[in-house]
């Protein structure tokens, strides 16, 4: 299960984006959070493991994050929640706008370390939000990929039933493993909280740290081949226009609303 820890971009001021347009935004002073889609993916994997455990089947859970030490508190939390292995791949260079490099790292980890037959990750992650990492991972592994997944349940040892959102509604698909699932707006969007007892019991578990070279990935060379180059940044303006309706009573306000806005619309019908 792959996840990314990101700065809380909602806490940044517009001036921060403008100042960092050429070289990247300064984010060291804001807290780190789990990408929301990745958080859903991590919880979905735990629920899948719980379902299998109820049938007497053990499912090994591995968690991987590509990034710096900011991921380690979350990896320790995942240990406390029952993940068997927690690892991160460090990179001196920023991979925010390098989805192909990130995908190469994840695919190499799955092939060489994890050896799992199901990869679950969020459909998007910031910054960049290209949404291509799951598909690139699937391409490099040669596995099928489904996106906008909202639910998964086991059927047999090598099959799962997946519910995902498509343009015209909900689609349910039976997939043979191995496969890659990209989680979207799942119903379960929050990672459960471990107990203090679980944290203490697993506090000594070691987090595996890899470099790109350990996995056979030359990150510097891959970045030179990356087609995306950061040219600038700007804040998205989310302000909405509005009109304050005058009037002393609700009846007066309703009359003003009807006369000034709704009446002309109704006359055109």
Write structural notes for this entry.
It contains eight helices and eleven strands. It is of the alpha/beta class and 269 residues long. The strands form three sheets. Strands 6-10-7-8-9 form a five-stranded mixed sheet. The protein has a four-stranded parallel sheet with strand order 1-4-5-11, sandwiched between helices. The chain has a two-stranded antiparallel sheet with strand order 2-3. A hairpin with a 2-residue loop joins strand 7 and strand 8. The termini are far apart. The mean pLDDT is 86.
Characteristic terms for this protein:
269 residues, alpha/beta, Rossmann fold, 2 domains, five-stranded mixed β-sheet, four-stranded parallel β-sheet
What coarse outline follows from CA principal-axis ratios? globular
CATH superfamily of the largest domain: HUPs
Largest sheet, in brief, is: 5 strands, mixed
Low-confidence stretches: none
Q: Provide the CATH architecture of the largest domain.
A: 3-Layer(aba) Sandwich
Order of helices and strands: EEHEHEHEHEHEEEEHEHH
The CATH class assignment of the largest domain is Alpha Beta
What is the strand tally?
11
**What class, by secondary structure content?**
alpha/beta
N-C termini distance: 53 Å
- Count, helices: 8
Kindly report the spatial arrangement of strands forming the biggest sheet.
6-10-7-8-9
In round numbers, the mean pLDDT is 86
Rg, rounded, reads 23 Å
Provide the helix percentage. Answer: 25-40%
User: Do you know the CATH topology of the largest domain?
Assistant: Rossmann fold
Count structural domains: 2
Taken as a percent bin, the fraction of beta residues is: 15-25%
């Amino acid at each position: 299960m792959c996840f990314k820890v990101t700065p809380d971009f909602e806490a940044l001021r517009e001036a921060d984006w403008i100042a960092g347009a050429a070289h990247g935004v300064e984010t060291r002073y804001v807290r780190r959070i789990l990408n929301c889609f990745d958080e859903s993916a991590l919880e979905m994997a735990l629920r899948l493991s719980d379902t299998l455990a109820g049938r007497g089947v053990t499912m090994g859970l591995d968690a991987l994050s590509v990034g710096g030490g900011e991921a380690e508190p979350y990896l320790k939390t995942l240990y406390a929640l029952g993940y068997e292995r927690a690892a991160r791949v460090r990179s001196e260079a920023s991979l925010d706008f390098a989805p192909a490099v990130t995908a190469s790292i994840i695919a190499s980890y799955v092939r060489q370390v994890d050896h799992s037959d199901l990869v679950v990750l969020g459909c998007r992650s910031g910054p960049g939000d290209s949404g291509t990492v799951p598909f690139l991972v699937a391409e490099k592994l040669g596995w099928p990929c489904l996106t906008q997944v909202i639910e998964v349940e086991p059927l047999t040892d090598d099959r799962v039933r997946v519910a995902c959102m498509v343009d015209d509604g909900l689609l349910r698909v039976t997939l043979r493993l191995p496969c890659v699932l990209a989680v979207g707006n799942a119903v379960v969007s929050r990672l459960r909280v471990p107990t203090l007892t679980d944290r203490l019991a697993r506090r000594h578990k070691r987090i595996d740290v890899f470099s790109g070279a350990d996995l056979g990935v030359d990150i510097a060379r891959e970045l030179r081949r990356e087609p995306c180059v950061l040219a600038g940044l700007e804040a998205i303006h989310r302000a909405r226009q509005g009109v304050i309706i005058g009037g002393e009573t609700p009846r007066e306000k309703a009359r003003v609303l009807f006369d000034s806005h709704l009446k002309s619309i109704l006359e055109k019908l």
